[in-house]
Design a protein that fits this description.
This protein is an alpha/beta fold. Helix content is 33%, strand content 12%. The chain binds 2-oxo-2H-pyran-4,6-dicarboxylic acid (0GZ).
């Protein structure tokens, strides 16, 4: 059944809706696990999509997100502002304030935001801002504006989440390494997994993490990065094998600086929509011991998003 987008919106042509009725994961995540990268979309009738957006999704509400959390066995979420909402953080904030303290957030803000509004975001549970450099998702924002935002949010103890493609890392290196906060990379900086894991492109990413202990990585989105599959569908227990060496390398070399998230509701997938239960079954392929799994799913996200509970 295709899912709606409410309000005055029409979904982007070819939009793939999130997976209905995901399987129950075989891998039982440790108690207190955090889905540290997921989004809400609208609903458009309540929280309109931003005029400057590059895509219009189907709705994906907070209730649907939290039902998925419970189904998959997770305890908490980090809700990351999706680009289809621009710098209007209301849908994300609404999800946080209705989470009973079980969700924190990452916002998108402009230089024009007031200190009072930053403070309100903090009170709602926001702990980071997202800077996006993926050209198909956002228009360019000048670096001096981003650096000014980074300096302001540093005072709140927040971090910066960056999203970019592997080929752009050399050009962005100086800016990223000058950021004054903890820096969290979305989806391992989108490596081209058809290239060798020990080749120059991924080595540059590893060097970025090695040389800069403030840099963390989400080892998420195998469904976006995989070229060869197999897909997380129809009970597949060994999905996205071509992504495994990349994610495992990051988890094993930087066990205290990695996060994992579903990326539900998976914006802009072109090829297939994964069964989120089977995505959870991908985790033990990349974090192969109970200790690594607990760091990835519990200890690291708790340290970053709920430090007061440590
Ligand atoms: O690759 C993407 O299309 C994508 C988009 C968004 C977003 O629109 O916020 O977030 C993601 O994590 C990934």
């Amino acid at each position: 059944m295709t899912k709606p987008t409410s309000g005055d919106f029409t979904k982007t042509a070819g939009w793939l809706d999130w997976f209905e009725g995901p399987s129950k994961p075989r891998f039982q995540v440790p108690a207190g696990s955090v889905d540290a990268h997921c989004h809400v979309f609208g609903p458009g009738a309540e929280f309109p999509y931003a005029p400057e957006r590059k895509y219009t999704p189907c709705d994906a509400s907070k209730q649907q997100l939290y039902a998925l959390r419970d189904h998959l066995g997770f305890a908490r979420n980090v809700v990351v502002q999706a680009t289809c909402h621009g710098a209007d953080n209301r849908a994300m904030v609404d999800a946080l304030v209705h989470s009973k303290g079980k969700a924190r957030g990452v916002a998108t803000v402009r230089r024009s935001i007031s200190d009072e509004d930053l403070q309100s975001l903090h009170e709602a549970g926001v702990r980071g801002v997202r800077f996006n450099f993926v050209k198909r998702l956002v228009d360019f924002t000048p670096k001096d504006e981003l650096m000014e935002i980074a300096a302001r949010i540093q005072k709140l103890g927040w971090h910066v989440v960056i999203y970019f493609e592997a080929v752009d890392l050399p050009d962005l290196w100086d800016f990223f390494t000058a950021l004054p906060t903890t820096v969290v990379v979305d989806h391992m900086g989108r490596p081209d997994v058809s290239k060798p894991v020990d080749g120059p492109e991924f080595e540059l990413f590893l060097k970025f993490m090695r040389q800069h202990p403030n840099v963390w990585s989400k080892v998420s989105c195998p469904e976006r990065l995989s070229v060869a599959g197999p897909k997380a569908l129809n009970g597949e227990q060994a999905a996205y094998q071509d992504v495994v060496p990349f994610a495992r390398k990051v988890v094993e070399e930087f066990p205290d600086r990695v996060l994992w998230g579903t990326d539900w509701p998976h914006p802009n997938l072109k090829d297939h929509m994964p069964d989120d239960g089977l995505l959870v079954d991908f985790i033990p392929h990349i974090a192969t011991t109970a200790e690594l799994q607990k760091k990835l799913l519990v200890d690291n996200p708790m340290r970053l998003y709920w430090p007061e509970e440590n």
